[in-house]
Amino acid sequence: MIKIQDLNINLKEFKLRDINLSVEENEFFILMGPTGAGKTVLLEAIAGLIPLMSGKILIGEREITGLPPEKRGISIVYQDYALFPHLTVLENIKYGLYFHRIDKTQAEKRLDRLLEVLNLFGLKQRFPVNLSGGEKQRVALARALMIEPRVLLLDEPLSALDPNFREEVRGALKRLHQSSNTTFLMVTHDFVEVLSLAGRAAVMNKGRIEQTGQVKEIFEKPASPFVADFVGMKNLFKASFNETYAVVSGLKIEIGRIVDPSSQYLAVRSEDIVISRNKFSSSMRNNYSGMITQIDNQGFYYEIDVQIKDVSFKGLITKGALIELGLEEGIPVYISFKASAVHVF
Amino acid sequence: MRREPFFWISISCGLVIMAFILLPLIEMMTAPSLSMLKETIKDKDVVRSIWLSIYTAGLAALISFVLGTPLAYLLARSSFRGKRLVESIIDLPIAIPHPVVGIAILSVAGKNHWIGQILSELGIRIMGSVTGIITVLTFVGIPFYLNATKAGFEGISPRLEKVSRSLGASMSSTFFRITFPLAWRSMLIGLIMCSARAISEFGAVVIVTYHPMIAPVMIYERFEAYGLKYSQPVAVWLVSISLLLFLILRILTSGNRKET
Predict the structure, then answer these.
(1) Residue A232: beta bridge partners?
(2) What would the 3-class secondary structure string for A21-83 be?
(3) pLDDT value of position B259
(4) Is A270 in contact with A337 (CB distance < 8 Å)?
């Protein structure tokens, strides 16, 4: 559906390098990455709002690289809503209709459906200045979808909203995606949004795409130390590899498979680490004894630092488990994890 | 609550400035008697000069609007090498002494310069003509229009224009449907400032065009020839009519729609 080939952009503040990306028809695709990674620049390039230095953008079979933004059929929704302040909610939503030949009754039908899904009936005659953040973003969504774009670009659409509005707009996004043929491409750095909305995702860093794939795959098998760190892999170590095991500061870790010899790092998600007071008898290949050096209350979970020789692992457990096991700083414990929970890159 | 000395100092300074500006103006405005004012406005020369002042200033504003709007937009929206330089050049007319402006324009429009030669071949005369007055007033007024309009454009998020484009509007549709409706107030303020500056110009005009006389030149002439008393009524009429025009313009265009 959207195909980006060897795209390079050179703006003063931002550079994008060798971007290759393909998004399927009607997919909900998410771009993640830290601030300054170039996510917004990539969205604006797809929309035709930023000149490319080189590369191609295709929508379906058609190359749109040279087309002006108004000819692309791509809508964009920004974090700050960008509603036209001099137009009412209804005028904002219908703005795009002036420029598209759409049958009147069909347009009315679409309008009614959007007003309903986004719960905007009561606000039609208001001006943007009199709307809450959540209402503004719903209007912006309706406006973008009113022209039935082939692609909808969303630039952190939820991050300026209060948590309760965020959930509401997130739900609306999901419903809108399911009930339309539009391809959604959204930028965010909120993992809740990624996990609840996206099928596939890409992680960007410093103007490059670091990894593309199913969301599950990115979270479970990060392809680079950056991605691992970005998606919250806490136990990330430099390692040397030997056939089916790795060595981290003298600690031997079973991987259970032969890995690419050029690999340099391994990582284990902290939720994959099992902490116990007694030696845990199970099929888990990696078992170590160590000592708790720190217990950090993180709200729903406690993060436990366990020192094993020169390596410090972080494990996550619930408050209930913490009390049941009687864990305290300074006591000896065992940790275990499966060989398949070890990610190598 | 006890006010601090700083508060009283601020108030005192404010009052001094208000008095400094208002006292001479009020004194001048109230000096001529009603009968004198009546008599003055019956004088065809006076009416002609005030009318000339107003319409040349209006034309200067119109020229600034037509030529200046695209440049103001460009300066507000893009950054390019030499932008600072362009902005400084735009501000130059504000800083140059007024007679120097007149001399500078004459030196280009004179017979010894190729521009002057082209103009005279086209039958356009700058020296001693209404065209000359409009040229001078545009020169001194255009920076005010450009700066106000540029600030207006800068106040509009480029994202509004980007969204408009993505919804199918061409660049010009976007300008007329989004940018202009949001910027026209700033443009109007720019026009008012530009023409206010133009109406008040004397030094540059007197060098380029003494006759036909704009109101400030006539006021100066009457002051020189007959003294304060004869110049005051013309001044009162010029100031009153200009203020009235600006006021009407502001009232007519003050919107009744709610906007941010």
Answers:
(1) none
(2) EEECCCCEEEEECCCCCCHHHHHHHHHCCCCCCEEEEEECCEECCCCCHHHCCEEEECCCCCC
(3) 46
(4) no
3-state secondary structure of A18: strand
Placement of tokens 């509005």 in the chain: A165
Using the Cβ of A74 and the Cβ atoms of chain B, whether some distance falls under 8 Å is answered with: yes
Nearest to B170 among A48, A70, A86 (CB): A70
d(CA A23, CA B257): 43
- B257 with A82: Cβ contact below 8 A: no
Asked if residue A334 lies in contact with residue A279, where contact means CB atoms within 8 angstroms, the answer is yes
ipTM: 0.79
pLDDT confidence bin for B257, thresholds 50/70/90: very low
Alpha-carbon distance of B125 to A241, in angstroms, equals 89
A272-285 tens-digit pLDDT: 899 988 887 777 88
- Sorted by sequence, the CB contacts under 8 Å of residue A134 that are 6+ apart come out as A161, A162, A165, A166, A168, A169
- Two tokens, residue B144: 């005010």
Q: Which residue of A has its CA nearest to B256?
A: A86
Interface size, chain A vs chain B, as Cβ–Cβ contacts under 8 Å: 82
pTM for the whole thing? 0.79
**List of residues 6+ apart from B160 with CB closer than 8 A:** A82, A84, B178, B179, B182
Say if residues A209 and A222 touch (Cβ distance below 8 Å): no
Distance from CA of B177 to the nearest CA of A (A): 10
**pLDDT per position as a tens digit, A152-191:** 999 999 888 887 788 888 888 988 999 889 999 999 887 7
Q: Is B259 on the interface with A (CB under 8 A)?
A: yes
- A338, with CB counted inside 10 A (0-12, 13-18, 19+), is middle
End-to-end alpha-carbon separation of chain B, Å? 35
For residue range A97-135, list pLDDT tens digits in order.
Answer: 999 988 899 999 999 999 998 999 999 999 999 999 889
In this structure, of A9-23, A129-143, A226-240, B109-123, the range with the lowest mean pLDDT score is: A226-240
B258 touches chain A (CB under 8 A): yes
Optimal mutation site among A13, A70, A130, interface B, most CBs of chain B within 10 A = A70
What's the maximum distance between 2 C-alpha atoms anywhere in chain B?
74
3-state SS assignment for residue B95: helix
